[in-house]
Design goal:
The complex is a heterotrimer of chains A (about 260), B (about 260) and C (about 325). Chain A has about 260 residues and is mainly alpha-helical. Chain A has helices at about 1-20, 20-50, 60-80, 85-90, 95-100, 105-110, 115-130, 135-160, 165, 170-185, 195-200, 205-210, 210-220, 220-250. Chain A has one domain. In chain A, about 75% of the residues lie in helices and about 0% in strands. The longest helix of chain A is centred in the last third of the chain and has 30 residues, at about 220-250. Chain B has one domain (about 1-260). Helices cover about 80% and strands about 0% of the residues of chain B. Chain B has helices spanning about 1-15, 20-45, 55-70, 75-85, 90-95, 100-130, 135-165, 170-185, 195-205, 210, 215-220, 225-260; strands at about 50, 55. Chain B has a two-stranded antiparallel sheet with strand order 1-2. In chain B, α3 (about 55-70) packs antiparallel against α11 (about 215-220). The longest helix of chain B has about 35 residues, at about 225-260. The model of chain B has no long low-confidence stretch (mean pLDDT about 85). Chain C has two domains: about 1-10 and about 45-245, 3-Layer(aba) Sandwich (Rossmann fold), CATH 3.40.50.300; about 250-310, Alpha-Beta Plaits, CATH 3.30.70. Helices cover about 35% and strands about 30% of the residues of chain C. Chain C is built from eleven helices and 13 strands. In chain C, α4 crosses α5 (about 130-145) and α6 (about 160-170) runs parallel beside α7 (about 190-205). The two termini of chain C are about 35 Å apart. Classes of the chains: A mainly alpha (about 260), B mainly alpha (about 260), C alpha/beta (about 325). Chains in contact: A-B, A-C. The interface of A and C includes residues 12 and 96 of A.
């Protein structure tokens, strides 16, 4: 529908802006790929030594890493403002979006693009391809998993940064939240005890970004599908509610500094 | 000499004034140690032994704590330096009565001192909870001694990366790659003891283990021979990198005086 | 046809009062103290379709707040408003299709992109099809004289050039109403002139109504037919610009030059002498108190007039006078 065309127009504008500094853009992508590969060497060494950990091998690790990296990269590249939403709110920059006839949250989120995210997307996909799970239905499940991951990343950060409508500065808080979510998503839940596993499915939904989709690709189960879908949906709804509620507060003028 | 001490002092005070940053980093350490505690507990359980390559589970966690402390305490002066080069500020600094590199050394030191101190406090707290009491006094002594050399090596590398701003647009990418080199070849994520032999050889030929592995390893299993070996290696590399740094700086200066900033 | 109708619009802000110091901050957390700011205290006015209306007032008068309420960005505490038939804060998105806004201090154009790229994006935002956009861009770039600037990244344009592109962008979708909030801030005289001419032309050719807020009286003089002056959140004056000048200030300034030297103690009854030079005098008088006729005959009787300049006071003075004379609640 029309909003989709609008979204594509925004993505096009972001790409055009990136092309103004082509060399930097491509450098960022390449270095991000190298960066991720460099980190993964750890897992290669680890699994070289320990081969199989609770049913996980280096291939499963590549799958997990691939899914999480792609989800993060896609969120960062296509909806780059999801990490800086708090600043947009606190600096009163929402006025610009409010004066235009498009859904505010969508417009804000897609108005920025983190170039290196494309590096993560490419690396993530390559990692998935090399993981051995690259089959027709594997790809389908991979895509579903990534979509769920993208929703979770964006929703989680939106919820936290919407607090800016009430408390102003959330930079430190959102950095910690993002770091926690991203870091935990790169490790299999099998490493943790039950309480932690539960936390990683709910309060810090890192498992929904990494582990659950990975298991889903390894073998289709209705449980994984349900967890991913429900998790993504719940967080999305919460995010929209939080943002809309904060926006109402913003529009009534009681949130931030007043420019009379 | 005094002016540099003053800079160190100023940065230490600066860091005390901003506790928010500290909380963020404490959480980072907490998360990292928590995850790796999970990883190694699982690993040891599955391997079915108490000791892997001479290290116990407790050893592993204290090793990681020290490694993470050093990583978070790394002077991030490459960003400051590349900024100064890019916006031309470096030309003005050259006209000031202090040495550019020594200035950044003091700046970085002041910045790191506070952070390392805080990281150790938090790290000790968290790791004690996860793995029991910390290593012996000898371990602490050896670790802290070799931490000095490690820090200096990090400084040299960071400064070199910062100076590449004379030649390249984006230097932050280099920092990322350097960080990964330290993560892997420096033994931050996996101690060299667990590497396949051929990789150990390669790693030892590079400066990275001296920046990370040395203090962390000596911390958990203090061995006198290893200590002197590491110490010697460290300061040899310090000499090499300081020389490289001086050369890089000299050519940077030339670029400035030729192009006028 | 009325395009804007506002009745008793009010906006009161509650801002948390925070004193300095740790103890005060702690107190503020548990028992917050609020101070009330009455930004807009009951404003009522109408604007006709295609009108050029100025909204002038000093900083803190409530101009920006009013504009925000009219665009639906802010919800009023009280009062009623209708813009192009929509209640702004209830039908914000629908209204957005029919109005254009330019906030002088908040740019709409993407910084790193050439203006044409932002124009194309705006075309998609306003759901115009590609042909429409192209035609529109051609027309607007001619009207605003920005044809050569379209392909240059906005960051490389001067402020004046950028503002012209900004205003052009706000007109892409043929809005019926254009709201300009401090559009000439930071611009030099030539750039200001440029923008004012272009806006006037758009108003004449397309009938776009223009509501302009500014604290630059020059904008008012050049652009508006009618003006509303606000201060302290209330309307203190509302009339045609020409009337404003005529009724409110009856002062004239006269500069004369004589063939012979002027006596140093030059004086004239009922006239304020501003400056006495060797051959010339500059003076000011109120036509209500001293008739023009007597002043002129006096001046010509003193010597041979070589040159004479008679001018109205600058609009700033007029407005300042209105502020001073206005009742403050």
């Amino acid at each position: 529908m029309k909003n989709l065309r609008f979204l594509f127009a925004l993505w096009k504008a972001n790409l055009q802006a990136a092309m103004e500094f082509r060399a930097a853009f491509f450098t960022q992508i390449i270095f991000m790929i190298l960066n991720n590969a460099g980190f993964f060497v750890f897992w290669i060494l680890y699994f070289d030594k320990f081969e199989n950990v609770r049913g996980w091998t280096v291939n499963d690790m590549m799958l997990l890493f691939g899914i999480a990296a792609t989800a993060w990269g896609a969120a960062a590249y296509f909806f780059g403002n999801f990490t800086t939403l708090g600043e947009v709110i606190a600096q009163g920059r929402l006025d610009y979006y409010l004066s235009l006839p498009k859904p505010v949250l969508l417009h804000v989120l897609a108005s920025r693009s983190i170039g290196s995210g494309m590096g993560d997307v490419l690396y993530g996909f390559a990692s998935f391809v090399l993981s051995g799970y690259f089959t027709w239905d594997g790809v389908l499940r991979y895509v579903l998993g990534v979509v769920a991951g993208v929703c979770i990343f964006i929703s989680f950060l939106t919820i936290i940064q919407s607090l800016s409508f009430w408390i102003g500065n959330t930079v430190a808080l959102s950095q910690v939240a993002l770091s926690a979510l991203l870091t935990f998503s790169l490790y299999p839940s099998a490493l943790f005890n039950t309480t932690t596993k539960f936390i990683l499915l709910t309060i810090i939904p890192a498992a929904l970004v990494g582990n659950v989709p990975a298991e889903f690709v390894r073998s289709f189960t209705w449980t994984s599908l349900l967890q991913m879908a429900a998790g993504a949906l719940v967080f999305l709804i919460l995010a929209v509610i939080m943002f809309k509620s904060g926006l109402r507060r913003y529009e009534s003028g009681s949130s931030i500094q007043v420019e009379v | 000499m005094k002016k540099y001490l003053a800079i160190v002092q100023m940065q230490v005070i600066n860091n005390i004034a901003y506790p928010g940053d500290f909380i963020g980093r404490s959480i980072s350490i907490g998360i990292f140690l928590f995850i790796f505690a999970g990883l190694w507990k699982t690993t040891f359980t599955i391997a079915g032994t108490d000791v892997i390559n001479g290290l116990t589970l407790a050893n592993m966690l204290w090793y990681l704590m020290m490694a993470e402390t050093i990583e978070l305490g790394r002077p991030r002066i490459n960003r400051v330096i590349s900024e100064q080069v890019k916006n031309g500020e470096v030309a003005y600094i050259l006209s000031k009565p202090y040495n550019f590199l020594l200035y950044h050394f003091s700046f970085g030191l002041g910045d790191s001192l506070m952070r390392i101190g805080m990281n150790i406090l938090v790290g000790v707290g968290v790791t004690w909870l996860l793995a029991g009491p910390p290593p012996s006094l000898l371990g602490w002594l050896m670790a802290l001694t070799t931490m000095v050399g490690a820090w200096v090596l990090h400084f040299c590398m960071m400064a070199l990366i910062g100076l590449t701003a004379f030649v390249v647009e984006e230097t932050n990418s280099f920092e990322l790659i350097y960080q990964k080199a330290v993560f892997i070849l420096g033994g931050m994520l996996l101690p060299l003891d667990m590497f396949p032999v051929w990789l150990q050889g390669i790693a030892r030929a590079l400066p990275f283990p001296y920046m990370m592995y040395a203090p962390a390893r000596l911390f958990v299993k203090p061995e006198v021979d290893l200590f002197w070996q590491m110490l010697a290696g460290q300061w040899i590399w310090v000499a090499v990198l300081v020389f490289a740094l001086a050369m890089a700086y000299r050519s940077g200066e030339k670029v400035l005086t030729v192009n006028g900033g | 046809m009325t395009s804007i109708s506002v009745h008793q619009l009010q906006k009161t802000f509650q801002t948390k009062r925070k004193a300095a110091g740790l103890a005060a901050s702690a107190r503020a957390l548990f028992k917050p103290e609020y101070s009330t700011v009455e930004a807009v205290r009951g404003i009522s006015f109408r604007m006709e379709e295609g009108e050029l209306l100025g909204f002038i007032g000093p900083n803190g008068a409530g101009k920006s707040t009013t504009i925000k309420m009219l665009t639906g960005i802010l919800h009023p505490t009280n009062g009623v408003a209708s813009v192009l038939g929509f209640t702004p804060w209830k039908e914000r998105q629908k209204l957005a299709f029919h109005i254009g806004t330019v906030f002088g201090q908040r740019p709409q154009l993407w910084y790193h992109l050439p203006a044409i790229d932002t124009f194309m994006l705006f075309g998609k935002i306003y759901e115009l099809d590609d042909r429409e956009i192209k035609k529109r861009v051609d027309f607007l770039s001619e009207a605003f004289e920005i044809q050569d600037l379209l392909e240059t990244p906005v960051r490389k344009l001067s402020l004046g050039q950028r503002m012209r592109c900004e205003v052009a962008a706000s007109l892409l979708h043929r809005p019926k109403l254009l709201l300009l909030d401090e559009p000439s801030i930071g611009l030099d005289v030539v750039a200001k002139q440029h923008i004012r001419d272009a806006i006037r032309r758009m108003n004449q050719e397309e009938g776009v109504g223009v509501l302009l807020t500014s604290h630059d009286a020059g904008d008012l003089e050049a652009l508006c037919k009618r003006v509303i002056i606000v201060n302290h959140g209330q309307i203190v004056y509302e009339d045609k610009v020409s009337n404003l000048k005529r009724k409110h200030l009856t002062t004239k300034m006269v500069e004369v030059r004589y063939a012979e030297q002027v006596p140093a103690d030059f004086k004239l009854d009922g006239v304020e002498v501003l400056k006495v030079g060797r051959y010339g005098v500059k003076l000011r008088f109120d036509t209500n108190e001293t008739p023009v006729d007597s002043v002129m005959s006096h001046l010509s009787s003193i010597g041979d007039l070589v040159d004479i300049t008679i001018s109205d006071p600058p609009l700033e003075e007029v407005i300042a006078k209105v502020y001073k004379e206005a009742p403050t609640a």
